[in-house]
Amino acid sequence: MTEIVDILISASFWAAVLRIASPLIFATLGELICERAGVLNLGIEGIMVFGAFAGWMAVYAGLGLWPGVLVALLAGMAFGALHALLTVPFGLSQHVVGLGITMLATSSAYYAYRLALPEVTSPPRIAPFQPLHIPVLSDIPWLGQALFSQTALTWAAFGCAALVALVLYRTPLGLAVRAAGENPQAVEAQGLSVAAIRMGAVIVGSGLMAVGGAFLTMSAFSSFFFEMVNGRGWICIALVVFGAWKPGKALLGALLFAGFDALQIRLQQTPMGQVVPYQVFLMIPYVLSILALILMSRRAEVPAALMTPFNRGER
Amino acid sequence: MTETKEAQDVVLRLSGITKRFGALTANDAISFELARGEVVALLGENGAGKTTLMNILFGHYTADEGTVDVFGQPLPPGLPGAALAAGVGMVHQHFTLAGNMTVLENILLGTRSLWTPGLGRAAARRRVQQLSHDFGLAVHPDARVATLSVGERQRVEILKALYREARILILDEPTAVLTPQESDALFETLRKAVAQGLSVIFISHKLHEVMAVSSRVLVLRHGKLVGEVATAETDRHQLAELMVGAEITPPAPAEARPGATLLRLDKVSTPARGNRTGLRSVDLELKAGQILGLAGVSGNGQGALADLLSGLETPSAGTMELAGAEIPRWSPREALAARIGRIPEDRHRTGTIADFTLTENAVLESYAEAPVAKAGWMDWSAARRAAEEIIETYDVRCPGPETRIRLLSGGNMQKLILGRVLGAQPRIILANQPVRGLDIGAVTYVQQRLIAARDAGAAVLLISEDLDEVLTLSDVVRVICEGRLSPEFPRGSKTPAELGQWMAGQGFDDAA
Amino acid sequence: MRLDPITAPSPARRLGLPALALGATVLVAMGLALIAGADPLATLGLILKGAAGSKFALLETLNRATPLIFTGLAVSVAFRARLWNIGAEAQLYAGALLTVVIGTQLGLPGPLALPLMAFGAVFAGALVLLGPVLLKTRLGVDEVVTTLLLNFIMALFISYLLEGPLKDPMGMGWPKSPALPRDARLPRLIEGLRLHWGFGLALISALTVWVMQTRTTLGYEIRATGLNPEAARFAGIPVGRVLVKTALISGGLAALAGFSEVAGLKGNLTADLSPGFGYTGIVVAMLALLHPLGVVVSALFVAGVFVGADSMSRAAGVPTYIADILLATALLFMVLAILLTKVRVVRG
């Protein structure tokens, strides 16, 4: 127990929580936008992989960090556009298309990586985002290191959560997105295009997923590894359910989840880690995700039209 | 500047509207005009093309031929947004509301450019409250739509149109889900709207309503406009003839000879599920050779009672007896074994499997028994024979038993279900909205079959939101409201208005 | 745009569109080769040659197809019931695990060991899918995410076993299990050919599944449940139980892939036993339109692409990941093509 307390009072633990949460926040928000509009996006895992690769590759090829993020965003949006085209106007199975997109995006990233770097055994590094020094705040003892030693991309993740909440609940656009996921007929009858709203949501959401992936290579680590996303996308889908499709709760879920993840990494270094195999620690995120789903199974308010395609004028 | 007064008064003009769905011509060269401040009734049987015509006007469908002019301007086809902008508002038969959002949010949806930063809720709320007051449409702007009653939801739909300053209001079968009293309130709202210069198209197949509310009647039959008469110069009789092409003779069942009680519910309650009302301490007896009609506004526990008899729901309190014996376990299979025949409310979602063939659908309830199955193996030739027999006996029009059932019309689909259910010679028949959406021929056919089953000794529970249908067929009527049942009213003992009061919930506490 | 159903699609439409989808995939392959600086036609030729150009290549393809037939069947059985089993990978490893444990730890003679290994594998795979399915039927937990996450949990569990209790003491430190004894391995299908009985078992499984789906009441129940669970439940089909039975069959089939790989090909369990056979099974099943016999054909096709790409890569220097890209595009093109055989895109 004392080990856990030691970990919890260390500033580096809290810094790690925010860092681990960041990619999850981006991708969870992205998935949340898609699902709020009525589209389950199982392309998330692959889009994160591609985002991680594209952002990193862009910087490696000489672009700046922010342009790199932009490249990842646009790449994600491109895969999102493909997903949206197939699932919205054509109404194809969101399960099959999503898994197909994941396979396509993942293998495209690996293919491009091998083409760009045919011979290397260990991937080259880039200069990643550095922690942003905030005057006064970052200099507060303990707190400064714990909460205010993050990169700009982490701050952007939190900003994104606020922005998504604001748009969803306080703007005509958000109203349309929420209605599209609940009853597309309502959207159609008010003169809006269900297809446009859903496609837009999937494209924007996919862009955010890719930025989440890019965080891994451009802020958390500095190179691209195969399997580095490692199921984070699927975890984000669980987080959307856990967050009851609400951005604020999803953000909290991501933080909670990151807390457990940061804790298990540190516990591996303690005497406990000598006794318990490290695989058990690594299982914790996945087990927690399943538990989160079970916990929310009875309560969650699923968007009523989630996974229901809409065909105009269907009789 | 030389426009005549008459031209100014025409707010809407449909010219030569034609719409085909495959081989079916849903609308055949329909033309008419709507003047300022009038209520025009669009009368026709189910399948006559009324809803299709209005969906074209509103932009849900694109017409194959013909044009629509609103206030003298041609309306671009296929864009609900254009119709809304031109001042056309539509209240759909199936409400188009998002249940997870508030009344105000539903009204605001699509009223501002998507890229504006705010919603302007405060000002909008004031306007909605003003409109509610002016038109007699009481509903709380901040209530979540999912919590509203059917009547309230309809008010939200009308408010949506009024908020957008619609000058032309289309209402598609608006009274189908209302009590007679709620219908009267709706008519009052329409009168207020007309007084303010709005024009109304009122779609219905109910003659008395059309007579009560409209100034002019357009009659559609088989997609064609077959009559246009001033309401003052016609009567129900003439309208009925125009509507079906012949005089309607509703089935007149002979006096019932009720026999033994086949099913008895004693203080049965079922849990509420989501927005669905449960049953509250319901007593019910179904007798052999009797049709018991259950009237009520939709969503008042009909679903729970139907599920209970179907085997999908079990009582959480009280007892359920079949032929005098309490049921031990209860599931759809047990219900079938107890020879309860079930005609479900939704033939597309519950009654059939769209991508199954007629053969596969015909054995849906008997697939596990001989002769269709032996020791876990399907005998497809036996199944096909069963399907062919239903097709033959019940006059199901189809290319053959290997056709996928999704290609059949609603009437033929319902005939297959009827054949499947009645072919098993049930002792108790649950008929939940058995004729909804069917054309007059199919309606009569289904109703006659139900009466024949009654005469053969079956106990029939008829659930319908259409009070006229309940009154036509039932030997005994009961009303359901908020999960409670009224006493039994023998045929002819209550007027529709009196039943309407029960439907609105009056009388239950006195009776209890 | 709007989609209008076509009541009676012409044969040209029904055959032409899927052919077009495959054609488009070939074009993508040529494009990818071009990007890699290789000659597109030569690349195609090399893939074809690598997949079926020699007896050796053909046998390699058949061997690679074997686990894919099993996982493809597993997915097709589950998807028919609209049970989204994305966890064939985990079930495969569970099967492989039991195969190795029974084969190496019990010391049974071969004729007894092999059936028991297969039985154990099926049991383990079924068990792995049972959890997510019970969560679905009892609590309404979406099975897509749970089965996906179980893949990761299973991979870690296997990794733990291979580094711990199940580690081969003779393995020179490598994380691998002890090898199966000679007589606990699947014999060759035909003497002298490098093709084991796993392939035969896969064909028998496909045939059995086909008969089950078309001729038995269970098959009818599964199809009804998949097409419309609400109507199925109303008609008295015990939907929950049908899903559980489906899961047991599906999980068992996926586990047989693990059994066949270990007992037929590898002889022991390693963490890289499956290069994603479970996930590829989804492509196999979808390309086969979930038809059990079609699964055999599409597994051969998919295996051919992999084997061919491997061999082409060595010769032409185009990364092997081209195979994965091609299968993903084939999947997406194919589902679109199949849709377009049934509907027409109209304006408005």
Automatic annotation (TrEMBL), chain A:
Q: What is its main location?
A: membrane
Any Pfam family the entry gives: BPD_transp_2
Which compartments does it reside in? Cell membrane
Task: Kindly give the membrane topology term recorded for this protein.
Answer: Multi-pass membrane protein
Q: Which InterPro entries match?
A: ABC_transp_permease
- What's an example GO cellular component term for this entry? plasma membrane
Residue ranges spanning the membrane: these are 6-27, 39-59, 65-88, 95-113, 147-169, 201-226, 232-263, 275-296
Query: What UniProt keywords are attached to this protein's entry?
Result: Cell membrane, Membrane, Transmembrane, Transmembrane helix
Q: Name one GO molecular function term.
A: transmembrane transporter activity
What PANTHER family does this protein's entry cite?
ABC TRANSPORTER PERMEASE PROTEIN, SUGAR ABC TRANSPORTER INTEGRAL MEMBRANE PROTEIN-RELATED
- This chain belongs to which protein, by name? ABC transporter permease
Its lineage opens with: Bacteria, Pseudomonadati, Pseudomonadota, Alphaproteobacteria, Rhodobacterales
UniProtKB/TrEMBL annotation, chain B:
Tell me a Gene Ontology molecular-function term this record carries. ATP binding
Question: What's the domain of life for this entry?
Answer: Bacteria
Q: Which Pfam families match?
A: ABC_tran
What SUPFAM superfamilies does the annotation carry? Answer: P-loop containing nucleoside triphosphate hydrolases
Key words, A-Z: ATP-binding, Nucleotide-binding, Repeat, Sugar transport, Transport
Q: Where is the ABC transporter domain?
A: 12-247, 263-507
Q: What is this protein called?
A: ABC transporter ATP-binding protein
- Name its species: Alloyangia mangrovi
UniProtKB/TrEMBL annotation, chain C:
Coiled-coil-forming residues are none
CDD domains xref list: TM_PBP1_transp_TpRbsC_like
Where exactly are the transmembrane stretches of this chain?
A: 62-79, 91-108, 114-135, 144-162, 195-213, 279-309, 321-340
Which cell locations does it reside in?
A: Cell membrane
The annotated topology with respect to the bilayer is: Multi-pass membrane protein
Keywords carried by this UniProt record: Cell membrane, Membrane, Transmembrane, Transmembrane helix
Looking at the keywords, is Membrane present? yes
Report what the protein is called: ABC transporter permease
Originating species = Alloyangia mangrovi
